[in-house]
Specification:
Number of helices of chain A: 14
Radius of gyration of chain A: 26 Å
Oligomer: homodimer
Strand order of the largest sheet of chain A: 3-9-10-16-13-12-11-24-27-23-22
Largest interface: A-B, 64 and 64 residues
Low-confidence stretches of chain A: none
Mean pLDDT of chain A: 96
Structural class of chain A: alpha+beta
Largest sheet of chain A: 11 strands, mixed
Number of domains of chain A: 3
Number of strands of chain A: 27
CATH superfamily of the largest domain in chain A: Bira Bifunctional Protein, Domain 2
CATH class of the largest domain in chain A: Alpha Beta
Distance between the termini of chain A: 32 Å
Shape of chain A: globular
Helix content of chain A: 25-40%
CATH topology of the largest domain in chain A: BirA Bifunctional Protein, domain 2
Chain lengths: 491, 491
């Protein structure tokens, strides 16, 4: 199989698109801005879902399902919220088609016009808080910890597979609390849960922080974000967790009675990660040969390829391969034995390299004679020959090594591409020459942020939670600052 | 807790609605015809999903995801298909709202009108077969076995929670095959898979059969249906599997090249079950006290309730309860220990009865003294006292007994409410007096079927696959027939 991908250094965006298509992750659909997630890409999303769902349930959250449609009037109830989402939403206005009297096609039946238009949910705060009003009366009903796995639609004008599509898949958490402190605690708990997932399953190091006023969620008091760095030096926001204060409780009149019989507005959070994570996974680790998937999220962790001439050899090899597969499967490892006779071993090697299967085992006639197998590691492209009797332990440890190695490599990249700068000249130069995360002092005003952003395209990704206090001067205005913030050009 | 449900014999429809609401399964939403699936109801759906997904993957199917939107023009490509779905679909016509210049609300921005309207998928054959055209070139690409978990919208005028809602959740399988025989085999394989699931997990006996021309899916050559009987004597279609012939391949020009280089149209199937199954589960088994859930799908299989005065007693009881919980959990049983002090034991007993938890264990001071526990069985409302040391094995077996017992009871009901009739008079009388499934001869014409349906509201549910050949006369026309078909009034 010839090299099928554009090289990263030639055109990173094209490399990404090639890879998503050629590795059978997703493709564009005939509906503008919507993608088709193909089985291999969906299998990665299912792995992401399964782990996150387990983590969310372990921390007391329950899944529920709310309608796809939101009445137009709900939208206007929270002023900031509507400003953000009204500009890019899919609107249902009618409920019937009829035959075109002038032709053989179909037209909208004007007699089937909705009294109130329905918006396809871009996010569900409004319909959920309308519902919470009925679910919450007393302090006994709190906290209410709800999560939803759903599709949402935001009418994006420039779309890219997984990273930005008009329809995408996500989970959205919506919680209600009796106190401000408890809601903030929940917001932070979720940031840490996402961090755990993104670092330990996706193998991508993160910076946690607060969004500035310009960048926070429409309707939030505070937005916590998780920022990751891609190989082209651009930042990607991997997840957000919002402390909503009492904004939605006020908009939908959701109150609870405390132990003393007094009424209070409820405190809220919301948070989500989406199918965008698949895009982040691809962009963070992969190389010019194809995907590199961390074992914890790889749909196939180990592939076994037989190398043979004729059925006699295949039979002997299959005996060994099936035994290896059985032993690995018993250890919870997902294994594919690819004994198709329609493709040559070389083709299969390239195919599984492209698809990022972490470990490839090849078994040939010499291995049968010697009691060995050849093991190839996708992430660093090394090969070794080992004895068959040691294979299960070896693979179990190898998968752990790969998982750890992928994270360490990404962290090294992130650290090497994080720069402290103290002048606006350096800021612009680093941005132009290297990209990456830039740690710089900022005077805390939206005005300055907007100017820097307009001039350089870099935005404040977050005000890092673990950034240390440090006296300094804003790179743009020279005004005093006591903490560096993280700038980058972002996806 | 007082009895909160209408009695089945007083008003079955009201009983069902009461139960769905009071057991916290679902509620109506502010969006007409759409429901909110509450955490307990969604947990049942998740159990259904998990089992079906496992069964579908074990038979070689892969999940994928296709867009929510279908371009209007796709709809018209298959003539029968469009006739069925154009009358009841949600249509997206615009993609932006703007401020109402005359007020403070929002209006649709007429400058943001779509060139071609988008239909919210009522089912995905059209967009999937449009995609399959690119995925299928050669016989090597077949069979293609795809499944999708998704929400779909059909603009229903009369809706009922779970049973018929404008938006519902489902899985839809779409497969492509090289031969007619293989596609029919797939269609039947799925009917059997659904039957296995509905009988062995949901505990509901089914009749498998073919739909008549009037009742088959729009665009299918043959529709296989799975029919179940509810406690009010009405039938409920629990799942369908369609042999689509080459209709969609023709509509979307999907061909493959065989081994000899010749081109052929591809053969297709599609099949689905939906969140309607939750409604079937409720209606098939439950009683005037609340839900009765089969253990295989119960979110909580065992609840433990402490009966105590004061903290000393509670502490001793909790020691025993936690140990029981741990041992049961190790055996894969889902257990809740409800030691809330905000509710009395009697309230909890009624609550878990209402919610259909299969087994309740009560532990009080006398049990601590005697080394016993009290076990209550939800399905037949019996209680027994057993020794603590035998409890794990006892519960494991008890759950199996309950699962089997629920099915046997439902099958007995189904058999007692299945009537052979040979005259139209008897047909109408049985329908009026007893309902249920009616096995009768029919002359095979749509005309007769429509007349019977118009006069009695009963429809042909299916032509049973395992019905034996038997000479007879159509109950309506007296014309010859060689097999009885199943009539019923249906949900």
């Amino acid at each position: 199989m010839a090299k099928v991908l554009t090289k990263r250094e030639d055109n990173y965006a094209q490399w990404y698109n090639d890879l998503v298509i050629k590795a059978d992750l997703a493709e564009n659909s005939p509906v503008r801005g919507c993608m088709i997630i193909k089985p291999y890409g969906y299998a990665i999303w299912e792995k992401i879902q399964a782990e996150l769902d387990r983590m969310l349930k372990a921390t007391g959250h329950s899944n529920a399902y709310f309608p796809l449609f939101i009445p137009k009037s709900f939208f206007s109830r929270e002023a900031e919220h509507v400003k953000e989402f009204a500009k890019e939403c899919a609107i249902v206005t009618h409920y019937r088609l009829k035959k075109d009297p002038d032709g053989k096609g179909l037209i909208v039946d004007e007699n089937a016009k909705l009294e109130e238009e329905l918006i396809i949910r871009p996010t569900s705060e409004t319909i959920i808080w309308h519902t919470f009003k009925n679910w919450i009366q007393s302090y006994r009903d709190l906290p209410l910890l709800i999560n939803q796995w759903a599709n949402v639609v935001r009418w994006e004008m420039r779309t890219r597979l997984f990273l930005r599509t008009s329809e995408f898949l996500w989970q959205e958490g919506h919680t209600a609390h009796a106190t401000r402190e408890e809601a903030i605690e929940e917001t932070e708990k979720i940031v840490n849960l996402y961090t755990d997932f993104i670092e330990n399953y996706m193998g991508i190091p993160v910076i946690k922080g607060l969004k500035s006023e310009n960048e926070k969620f429409a309707g939030a008091v505070d937005t916590y974000a998780i920022e990751t760095l891609m190989q082209d030096g651009k930042a990607l926001q991997a997840g957000t967790s919002h402390f909503l204060g009492q904004n939605f409780a006020r908009a939908f009149d959701v109150k609870f009675t405390d132990k003393n019989g007094k009424q209070h507005l409820v405190w809220a959070t919301s948070w989500g990660v989406s199918s965008r994570l698949v895009g982040a996974l691809v962009m963070a680790h992969s190389d010019d040969n194809g995907l590199i998937l961390p074992p914890n999220l790889a749909p196939i962790q180990v592939v076994i390829v037989p190398i043979y001439k004729g059925n006699d050899e295949l039979e002997k090899i299959s005996g060994v391969a099936e035994q290896i597969k059985e032993n690995l499967t018993k250890n919870g490892i997902s294994v594919k034995y690819d004994d198709r006779d329609t493709q040559k071993p070389g083709w299969k090697f390239a195919e599984y390299e492209l698809k990022g299967v972490p470990v490839r085992i090849a078994v040939g006639p010499r291995d049968i004679a010697n009691g060995t197998v050849e093991i190839a590691r996708r992430d660093i492209l090394t090969k070794e020959v080992i004895r068959q009797e040691n294979i299960t332990d070896h693979i179990v440890n190898l998968l752990k090594d790969i998982q750890a190695g992928i994270f360490i490599k990404a962290r090294k990249f992130r650290d090497e591409n994080t720069h402290k700068v103290d002048t606006y000249e350096d800021f612009k130069r680093i941005l132009r020459e290297k990209g990456g995360f830039i740690l710089a002092h900022w005077d805390g005003t939206s005005e300055t942020e907007k100017k820097i952003s307009k001039e350089t395209k870099a935005t404040i990704r977050c005000i890092p939670l673990d950034g240390k206090q440090e006296k300094g001067k804003c790179i743009y205005t020279g005004k005093p600052s006591n903490k560096r913030v993280v700038f980058a050009i972002a996806y």
